[in-house]
């Protein structure tokens, strides 16, 4: 489920590919963010076969997204009929996309390195980091699937080896992509001007995730206080009415 | 320390049997396992590596400083406290690694996330960093904000205790790699001077001082190093009555310039005297004396200054503010060189802001300015208008004729009271063309077309007449020349007839003395000079060879008179010496005009 972005223009047909591009970039950002969370669990107390599986799946999903995003954006940039405003938008998306990809590349390298140090199959010592639960929900978010089955199968050393080599290949691939993007696409990154706010708006974030959260003490506080005040007032009013009635009665 | 080493150490500590004991951390809403105490860590390290407690603590602190372990309380101080303080192992993702540099992008994302969580309440240093990053990573900012939001939301997917742990891990990572030490950050973000400002200051300085720079502008009347004319130095002497205009102009540049020029300071002192505030300058000067004076008299000087200027009811009491006075008096109980610095600076600033301005408008200064000398630039064409070489030669010849006519009279020796005028020796006279040099005379092998008069004179001077013990011009080749000159002279010169010494009248002496400059003028750059082995033609044939005459003009005059006939106007000592050397015969007395002492040693 791609998140809607307030920046997206609300006009006609030309906005469609624009919105597509934005949606793709947003998805990729989300997946990369989740990948980072997963990567931070490697070598820790929750490192397991399932974590590695989740990592792999997330990575593969990110790769597909990256490829489609790149194709879309390069096509857009090559389009000479693009209006100035659209071009600027596309360039912004391009910068976001390349930064995302760089982040992803860095994380992949780290995962590869740590994977070779901390092998699940060989039952190497893991660091007691204090984590308890798995990161399945995070992976589910990344893959945009409401439920993710926990992998129960054991991973053998050879499987792990395969996984590692595949990871290596993918790292090389992303590396090449990044290089191609740098060389062949004529977008001067530093000339692109950011349109968004300097600070991420905390309120908007919280309201969006309210539905996902359960029992979060931060949310809904304002509403509750307002309700409370209202109730108080009503109570006071009632008491006043009752008192006046009593006075009338007694008097 | 070696990162790999610590990697392995941390893994060893994980061992359930031989590793560090772990306990559970109790928080308000949840419990989190895998907490370790500082004392356990230190004890484990001490046992494992067989080191003392202090070293174990140091090792532990290293691990915390690198980021392998982070404290759960007091998270900003990266040290091991060997007590029940709790620590936890950092996840390998956040371990320090050289192959991946710590990225600013990540830090920006972290700060943005923190901002979200704390609803805009970042710490001061974080705020500064955030703004800084926003400035130079502006093109990525949309991405950073977006990524921060996504990471925040992804974090929310995790269970509460895990979320807490992850937040702690991340925070610990950034404490290590972006330490919140205000001092260093202030150093980094200290406002720097804009290059436009500093260049502006340079330009201003250059414009002000350029006309006073002898490399850029000619100094008046002329640069002594170029023209050998020392008028410039004479005009700019320390205690001169009327300074030059340029010098006075310099005083207007800044107060420091005025004070550093002694003549300027004198002028300023005069002005202050008229204003009855001379004690300020006197105090300042006394402080300078204290600062730069000998250590032996320092204490006394300081006490004297205090008695004269600072004490209540002092004869020359200076007006400084209470605080400075307090500091100074306190410092004077243990006086040192700089004890009066604060007071001195205060007085300096007072003078600079107040008296200096008034001085520049005062009649004293205006008077000085009016009387200031503006020397004419050195006229290279009319160097010595009265001493044209042609005229000089004529004069010399006349004199020679006179001498010849008037008999073996007098001294050709320079009056020792004739002040040497060295520059004349250098520049007056023209070079004779070497082609007409007499065959008997050899030119100096290394002489240029116009050899320096020093070498000319000295090289031609027989050793007997020269004084080398004055040390000024002695060099290795002189003795040899002298010797060879001596030998050749003694060989070839005819023994002059013995002549009686004739007393020279003072007037003649003076005349001779006055003519001496002309003599020098004509002499100096003589090209066809006698070489080391050269000899000076005796005056026997003065007219036959005009060339040698010219060269030996200087010497000829002397050659006339044999040593015993020479008159030494003052010193009888010399006479004695001279008489001992009479046996020489035909010895030329050469006195270098710039040597004020002309003692003749017969010994040579």
TrEMBL record, chain A:
<feature type="transmembrane region" description="Helical">
    <location>
        <begin position="227"/>
        <end position="250"/>
    </location>
</feature>
<keyword id="KW-0472">Membrane</keyword>
<comment type="similarity">
    <text>Belongs to the RGS7BP/RGS9BP family.</text>
</comment>
<feature type="region of interest" description="Disordered">
    <location>
        <begin position="1"/>
        <end position="22"/>
    </location>
</feature>
<keyword id="KW-0734">Signal transduction inhibitor</keyword>
<feature type="compositionally biased region" description="Polar residues">
    <location>
        <begin position="1"/>
        <end position="19"/>
    </location>
</feature>
<dbReference type="GO" id="GO:0009968">
    <property type="term" value="P:negative regulation of signal transduction"/>
</dbReference>
<keyword id="KW-0812">Transmembrane</keyword>
<dbReference type="InterPro" id="IPR026512">
    <property type="entry name" value="RGS7BP/RGS9BP"/>
</dbReference>
<protein>
    <submittedName>
        <fullName>Regulator of G protein signaling 9 binding protein</fullName>
    </submittedName>
</protein>
<keyword id="KW-1133">Transmembrane helix</keyword>
Automatic annotation (TrEMBL), chain B:
<dbReference type="InterPro" id="IPR036284">
    <property type="entry name" value="GGL_sf"/>
</dbReference>
<feature type="domain" description="RGS">
    <location>
        <begin position="254"/>
        <end position="369"/>
    </location>
</feature>
<dbReference type="InterPro" id="IPR047077">
    <property type="entry name" value="RGS9_RGS"/>
</dbReference>
<dbReference type="GO" id="GO:0007601">
    <property type="term" value="P:visual perception"/>
</dbReference>
<dbReference type="GO" id="GO:0005737">
    <property type="term" value="C:cytoplasm"/>
</dbReference>
<keyword id="KW-0716">Sensory transduction</keyword>
<dbReference type="InterPro" id="IPR036305">
    <property type="entry name" value="RGS_sf"/>
</dbReference>
<dbReference type="GO" id="GO:0005886">
    <property type="term" value="C:plasma membrane"/>
</dbReference>
<dbReference type="InterPro" id="IPR047017">
    <property type="entry name" value="RGS6/7/9/11_DHEX_sf"/>
</dbReference>
<dbReference type="Pfam" id="PF00615">
    <property type="entry name" value="RGS"/>
</dbReference>
<keyword id="KW-0472">Membrane</keyword>
<keyword id="KW-0844">Vision</keyword>
<dbReference type="Pfam" id="PF00610">
    <property type="entry name" value="DEP"/>
</dbReference>
<protein>
    <recommendedName>
        <fullName>Regulator of G-protein signaling 9</fullName>
    </recommendedName>
</protein>
<dbReference type="InterPro" id="IPR000591">
    <property type="entry name" value="DEP_dom"/>
</dbReference>
<feature type="region of interest" description="Disordered">
    <location>
        <begin position="463"/>
        <end position="502"/>
    </location>
</feature>
<dbReference type="GO" id="GO:0043005">
    <property type="term" value="C:neuron projection"/>
</dbReference>
<dbReference type="GO" id="GO:0008277">
    <property type="term" value="P:regulation of G protein-coupled receptor signaling pathway"/>
</dbReference>
<dbReference type="Pfam" id="PF00631">
    <property type="entry name" value="G-gamma"/>
</dbReference>
<keyword id="KW-0734">Signal transduction inhibitor</keyword>
<dbReference type="InterPro" id="IPR047016">
    <property type="entry name" value="RGS6/7/9/11"/>
</dbReference>
<dbReference type="InterPro" id="IPR015898">
    <property type="entry name" value="G-protein_gamma-like_dom"/>
</dbReference>
